[in-house]
């Protein structure tokens, strides 16, 4: 249940590795399901390297996309709940706690339409003890005539967008939490089709749920730590790449996830840490809750300070200046913009009066309009204050006559740009702000282009 960034790729990889299983992905969103079923494979709603090939091989054979929940649930022996769990916007825990209404409504549908024994698997990241909520909903619905029975397992996803297929195909570990070893065995048998047994970790339900939240909090904390270090590098003359390399060589620290950038985004990190903050507060663990909150504070600061650096370098004013923004997704190799640092940074720049020329290889103009909360500039709205942005399909058009270029994602195409050509068509004095370590400093030697690099200055 849920044909999004998690449900779609995860179920495609299961179908690909288990030709003997029939996998049906159901979703309430008609448009999304039509796109998953579109004969033109490039129209599927999730961009993820390697996904199109897997879907092409399995779709209409043992991988199906549908809006028919009743049939999908009725026929299923195992149901993965992969619906979204946004942060609550109102009521108790607003701004921190997860809104479980979709998980709850999914559980009610399972209770209503399932037949015989059904194993319900929590795939979505959820606050700890959500399995108990699901179980109590199922218990309240089951009726003795139907002979419906259920097991609930937690099997969190650890895929990172942009590398989802590889992460699913070659996972570091698969975590299955549950109270009934037969149900765990059944799910384990699916993974054993392509994952070594040593990589499958079996725990109780709550350990599994908490491990997912904590793993994401630890990862996000590393990003905030390296970003805080980057800011210090800029004022001291240290170089963040040298520092990250040096500290990463300590095997206890390790070299992964030490790349400074414009702040972490994505659907999980902020939400999961807020969740942890809420849990700690709920149990009266105030110091622990403040500790995790600080990871978010540094992340927000990172986004805001980048727009401030840009304004400062451009003489303190952005009014009437054209700034080309390269990269709008929350990281390269995905079309997902949820919590993308580009959103805050662009909004800040628009508030300062800049005109933004935005480019991204995979994000659509309509998605950017939703994220920025305003339509692209056109003849009718050109006198409004906060909508001075335009989307460009071609990088050359975005950078033409720009006062500054800001790189927010390390998409491969940005690494190959010829800065000599670009500097020739920009307006002087022109600036390049590289927040993702895409530009080689040496390649700009002798060019009429000022460079600011995050973590170097
Ligand atoms: C989401 C969460 O963000 C993540 O924390 C969790 O681990 C997995 O679920 P994702 O797949 O990236 O991740 O979300 P999204 O792309 O929004 O997909 C969720 C899908 O569920 C949407 O297509 C939505 O239409 C569908 N949905 C939601 C339902 O089918 N029924 C509902 O009641 C609610
Ligand atoms: C994350 C977890 O990695 C994954 O295990 C979990 O299941 C879901 O959440 P995701 O959000 O898709 O995955 O991407 P990830 O690669 O973790 O990146 C998150 C953010 O951190 C991105 O904005 C990325 O640019 C940023 N990041 C990551 C850095 O700034 N520096 C790094 O070194 C790594």
Report on this model:
With 457 residues, the chain is α/β, with parallel strands linked by helices. Helices cover 42% and strands 12% of the residues. It contains 17 helices and 13 strands. The protein has a 6-stranded parallel β-sheet with strand order 10-9-8-11-12-13. A 3-stranded parallel β-sheet has the order 3-4-5, sandwiched between helices. Strands 1-2 form a two-stranded parallel sheet. It is globular and about 80 Å long. The two termini are 47 Å apart.
Q: Please provide the ordered H/E string of secondary-structure elements.
A: HEHHEHEHEHEHEHEHHHHEHEHEHEHHEE
- Give the termini separation: 47 Å
Average pLDDT metric? 94
Report the structural category. Answer: alpha/beta
Oligomer: single chain
Strand and helix map with partners:
Blueprint: H1 7-17, E1 23-26, H2 30-36, H3 51-58, E2 63-66, H4 69-75, E3 78-81, H5 101-113, E4 117-122, H6 130-141, E5 149-154, H7 164-169, E6 174-177, H8 181-191, E7 200-203, H9 205-236, H10 240-248, H11 269-282, H12 286-313, E8 322-326, H13 341-351, E9 355-359, H14 365-372, E10 389-391, H15 395-399, E11 404-407, H16 412-415, H17 419-425, E12 431-434, E13 450-453
């Amino acid at each position: 249940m849920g044909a999004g960034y998690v449900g779609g790729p995860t179920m495609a990889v299961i179908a690909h590795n288990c030709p003997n299983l029939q996998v049906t992905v159901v979703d309430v969103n008609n448009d999304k399901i039509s796109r998953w079923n579109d004969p033109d494979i490039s129209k599927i709603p999730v961009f993820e390297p390697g996904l199109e090939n897997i879907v092409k091989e399995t779709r209409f054979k043992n991988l199906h996309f549908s809006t028919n929940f009743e049939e999908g649930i009725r026929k299923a022996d195992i149901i993965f709940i992969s619906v979204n769990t946004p942060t609550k916007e109102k009521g108790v825990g607003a701004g921190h706690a997860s809104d479980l209404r979709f998980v709850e409504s999914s559980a009610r549908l399972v209770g209503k339409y399932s037949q015989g024994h059904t194993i319900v698997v929590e795939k979505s990241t959820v606050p700890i003890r959500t399995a108990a909520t699901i179980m109590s909903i199922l218990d309240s619905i089951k009726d003795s005539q139907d002979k419906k029975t259920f097991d609930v397992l937690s099997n969190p996803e650890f895929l990172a967008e942009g590398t989802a297929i590889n992460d699913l195909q070659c996972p570091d570990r698969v975590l299955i939490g549950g109270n009934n070893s037969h149900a765990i065995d059944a799910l384990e048998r699916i993974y054993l089709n392509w994952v070594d047994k040593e990589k499958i970790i079996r725990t109780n339900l709550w350990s599994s749920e908490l491990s997912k939240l904590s793993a994401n909090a630890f990862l996000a904390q590393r990003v905030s730590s390296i970003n805080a270090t980057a800011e210090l590098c800029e004022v001291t003359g240290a170089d963040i790449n040298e520092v990250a390399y040096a500290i990463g060589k300590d095997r206890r620290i390790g070299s992964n996830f030490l790349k400074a950038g414009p702040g972490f985004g994505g659907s999980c990190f902020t939400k999961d840490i807020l969740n942890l903050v809420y849990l700690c507060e709920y149990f009266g663990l105030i110091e622990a809750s403040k500790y995790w909150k600080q990871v978010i504070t540094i992340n927000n600061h990172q986004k805001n300070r980048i727009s401030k650096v840009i304004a400062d370098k451009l003489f303190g004013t952005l009014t009437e200046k054209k700034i080309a923004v390269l990269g709008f997704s929350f990281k390269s190799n995905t079309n997902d913009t949820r919590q993308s640092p580009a959103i805050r940074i662009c909004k800040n720049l628009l508030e300062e009066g800049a005109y933004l020329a935005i480019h991204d290889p995979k994000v659509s103009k309509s998605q950017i309009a939703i994220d920025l909360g305003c339509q692209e500039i056109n003849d009718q709205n050109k006198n409004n204050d906060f909508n001075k942005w335009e989307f460009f399909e071609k990088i050359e058009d975005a950078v033409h006559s720009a006062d500054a270029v800001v790189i927010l994602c390390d998409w491969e195409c940005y690494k190959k740009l010829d800065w000599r050509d670009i500097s020739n068509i920009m307006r002087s004095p022109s600036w390049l702000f590289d927040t993702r370590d895409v530009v080689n400093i040496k390649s700009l030697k002798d060019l009429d282009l000022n460079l600011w690099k995050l973590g170097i200055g």
